[in-house]
Amino acid sequence: MNNLIGESIFRGNWKKFSHSDLYDCLNLLPDKDLLKDIGFDEQIRWMTYLYSAPKTISGKTLNNRNHVIGLYDPFAKRKCFPAGLRFCINVYTGCSHWCKYCYSVGYIRDSFIGRKKKIYREQFVKDIEELKALNLTPSPLHLSNSTDPLQPLENVQKDMLWTLNKLSENQNLFTTITILTKNPELLSSNEYLTICREINNLKVEVSCAFFDEKRKSSIELCSPSIRSRLKGMASLRKSNISVALRLDPLFPREPLSQKYFKKPRLTDYGAPVAQTEGDINNLLKFANDINCYRIIVSPLKLTFGRYQKSDIVERYLPLYKELGEGKLIKKGNAFRMPNEYFVELLEYPKQLAKHYGIEIFYCKQSLFNTK
Ligand code: SF4
After folding, report:
1. Whose CA is nearest to atom 8 of ligand 1?
2. Contact 280, 348 (CB under 8 A)
3. Whose CA is nearest to atom 4 of ligand 1?
């Protein structure tokens, strides 16, 4: 351990973990499965990266260390997330695309205001230094779960461009580097594309749930147009960058299944028409034409924001209530559609994907398949 980590990276009151206190500290982990199936030496190194070792063990809790290269979904229990440890960088805080279905309203204050992180670059450099010194087994990296790293702020702040440069120099620390965005057009511009080409194992996931611009604009108030997204995706593919289409979220759509609904139209429940079968066909056809490597889907969750209210929740709520036979299905801070209905909703895109010969994955399943 001492040989692996130079003293220079231990700063402030960060005390490194020793073999002897590992057992006690493992017991202090909020999620006992976090480091399951990892060898003893590597457990120590992960603990050192993630936590400050308490000065004395008894009665103490572990303190999280601040990183910009942090754990992917740190609040999820590993039991429901068994694909191994992975990293995530949220380049900015908040996101100005203003998608009414955004999950981040549940945990980020002023989530529709994109802003830079104070010591982002300095902390990033420290994190890379530590990852190198700790020699952790390379894991997948995702940018970004709670913000779009290529939102308008990027045009002035350029932290994503800077990050891509640094990642290209340190790509051996990660197995895959996945960018999630609604702005592939910026990524396909020369200064970004030049760096993207230098990153092996780069994957770009483009969220595009709509085909109709008006429907898009009524639900994603300030996100890039569909035209811009399709143009950006096509140019990335032309440069041989791997691109996945995220048909995400999947909205309830007509024809409404008689198995679940008494009324025939979405508007009978006050819900907007967001996606039609024609839209889905157009998107999958496009994905096939440009040779996307996969389609990723997830159901519409109605997140009731701690910090922000969205009319989308109110507008879909009567529909979700009927789906739950009068009861709302609540999990975490969102109302969900029943899984059986999602399976039914998925049938049409699944058939199309089969027809076009593209793999289609549920969001979490896609994650587990990204090694
Ligand atoms: S692009 Fe993503 S992070 Fe940004 S507002 Fe939309 S859903 Fe939220």
Report:
1. 102
2. yes
3. 95
Give the sheet arrangement for strand 174-181, strand by strand. 70-71, 87-89, 139-143, 174-181, 202-207, 242-250, 294-299, 360-362
Q: Answer whether residue 260 shows pLDDT above 70.
A: yes
Separation of alpha carbons 35 and 41, rounded Å:
11
Expressed in angstroms and rounded, the spacing between residue 147 Cα and the centre of ligand 1 is 6
**CB under 6 Å to ligand 1: residues?**
95, 97-99, 102, 104, 147-148, 182
Per CATH, which fold does 70-368 belong to? TIM Barrel (3.20.20)
Centre of ligand 1 to C-alpha 31, Å, is 28
**Rounded to the nearest whole angstrom, what is the distance from the C-alpha of residue 106 to the centroid of ligand 1?**
12
pTM of the full predicted structure? 0.93
CA distance 94 to 109: 8
Question: What Cα–Cα distance (Å) separates residue 120 from each residue in 86, 144, 158, 199, 368?
Answer: 20, 14, 12, 21, 28
Q: For residues 277-298, give the mean pLDDT.
A: 98
Among protein residues, the one with the nearest Cα to ligand 1's atom 7 is 102
Encode pLDDT of 39-84 as tens digits: 888 888 888 898 876 666 666 677 888 899 999 887 777 776 666 7
Question: For the chain, what are the domain ranges?
Answer: 7-64, 70-368
Q: How far is CA 349 from CA 63, 297, 300, 319, in A?
A: 45, 9, 15, 21
